[in-house]
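Progress note, sequence design subtask.
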């Protein structure tokens, strides 16, 4: 766990190319910089992130949302209060990782 995410990390998330670089390395980055280990879970291909109301975690979510390809392929649902679910199965030839 680290402190507030750096602008460099947030930029990397925003610009991450999941087609060329893969989804799992991006997930590893997010897990590494997420504040409070208990507020992030990876179960199989499901990534669950809870911001806990912390602005640094909310900035990470915003960076993921700004990554249009990641968000459109991986976002499953979100619930009021900062709870997010993502399908982070790697992409396969000819389609999304579903």
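Output:
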């Amino acid at each position: 766990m680290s402190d507030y995410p750096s602008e460099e990390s947030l930029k990397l998330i925003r610009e991450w190319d999941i087609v060329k670089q893969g989804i799992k390395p991006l997930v590893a980055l997010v897990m590494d910089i997420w504040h409070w280990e208990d507020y992030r879970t990876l179960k199989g291909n499901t990534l669950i992130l809870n911001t806990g109301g912390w602005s640094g975690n909310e900035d990470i979510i915003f960076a993921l949302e700004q990554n249009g390809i990641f968000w459109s392929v991986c976002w499953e649902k979100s619930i009021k209060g900062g709870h997010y679910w993502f399908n982070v199965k790697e992409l396969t030839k000819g389609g999304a990782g579903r």
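The first strand starts at residue 40 and ends at 43. Work on this subtask will continue into the next period as scheduled.
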